[in-house]
Amino acid sequence: MLISLESVTMKFGGLTAVDQVTLQIKENDICGLIGPNGAGKTTLFNVIAGHYKPFCGAILFQNRRIDGLHPYQINNYGIARTYQNINLFRSMTVLENIMVGKHPRLSAGIVGSIFRTPTQRREEKELREKAMDILKMVGLENKAEETSKNLSYGEQRRLEICRGIASDPKLLLLDEPAAGMNTKEKVDLIEFIRKIRSFGITILVVEHDMKLVMGLTEYLFVLNFGKLIAQGEPGDIQSNPEVIKAYLGDDI
Amino acid sequence: MARHKNLFIAMAFVVFLAGLPVMLGNNAYLMLVLCLSGIFVIASSGLDLLFGYSGQISIGHAAFYAVGAYTSAILTTKLGVSVWFGILMGGVLATVFAALIAIPISKLVHMFLALVTIGIGELTHQAIINLPELTGGFTGVKLIPMPRIGSYVFDGISYYYIILAFVILSLIVKKHIVDSRIGRAFIAIRESTDAANAVGINVTYYKTVAFASSAMFTGIAGALYAHYVGFISPESFTLDQSVLFLTAVLCGGMGTFVGPIIGSVVIIFINETFQALGSYQMLVYGIFIVVAVIYVPAGLVGAVRMFRGNLFKVVKRFADKP
What is the tally of structural domains in chain A? Predict the structure, then answer.
């Protein structure tokens, strides 16, 4: 198992946003996390990525406890994420966004940077090339020097995913990557996510577009009111009565 | 190509500055204004690393200016160490001081950070006044020596070249920091602290680095100031001084290379021109800050860029007309 959550609970005051969630994700899977609005999907993401400290429970990533660590430490362990509302470094160029994404994989310190040592220069040069390679994968190489806030919505989404994979994570958390994309962009996105997986990156995606989820993922987790109500392969989930009840309500 | 062009412009500018004393015919007053401008450029470029790049405000940078100035002044007058060592220690102590402060306050943002930094400036000011054995209290430190190599003393015009050398050195260091992994981390924190944290940047650490490196510049500027004027007292290190640094950065253009340089020169010249206004000077700066923040938030540099952009648009519109 790459990551396992053991009865993770997150409370905000009296509200239990994530309730005793236990789940495991296998290495190199594309997993989906679905559920009605307010089910606690983004909260669960924030708990895994370290933005929230779980109220109780444990998170094991490659057999190491990561719950309660800072987001930057969790990133260093190999978990990267994107945001539901795009959260780029807006005034930086497209290339710089990727370069920041590689931050934890670089070694230059303060002294090395101030004196621009040969090692630091070589690292920066390689960094530029690697960042360019990542941009080429999503066809943003021509916009490398563009300020990232000037990109179109779809491009910004792709750039954020690129920034995520720049740090060579083992697990990538995608929070509604297809939101606001048109059909063509969605098709490209599926292809891109599959490509990311081929690099040995495991993916957990929150998404509302059911067609996209069913076509992309190999395993699904369903949340409702903070509880994990079902898990399994997409085909089984579609016919699961609990899931249908959660989405469509009880019989009248 | 653009890099070579910029380097060429910078070199030409340095040659111009080096020749300036000759062109001005050794006019003592103008040299004074130039020296003070140089010192100001170092201090405000330092503040810009913190304020412009990492997005952390400080309205207490006079504290680091004071630590640099007093450290070097006391070391050279009381212990008789070399001025060069004094300036170095001034920078080092200001850096350490800033790092120690930054660790507890790095969680603060916006007005809370502004208030705490005002407090730190005030505390330092009070500490100087209330430690007369060390700092001379209100009477200050007198007869601070000029730097020397062998028997050659750098005074008058030759001190101008010392300041020029320090300005060039600090600007190179600033550029190197900004263009490195460290500088990118600063900007990332400014743009989105949350996302910076999520991409693996230790925010607390880099905020501390921003404070410390920023104070290094300002501390060295303080030491250069002490040796230049030869006399320092608490009244040079008040809230007014902190506000002046901030005004220089804001009015020149924060988060840019040339912004603090232009801002500093403008502020020093205004300072000299409005000397007659006495205590009403601060009113002028106040108006400056308000106007800058409302109308040209990107400072003079931003205004020029905007103007150039608009000019291109106008030209293009005419050119596109059939």
Answer: 1
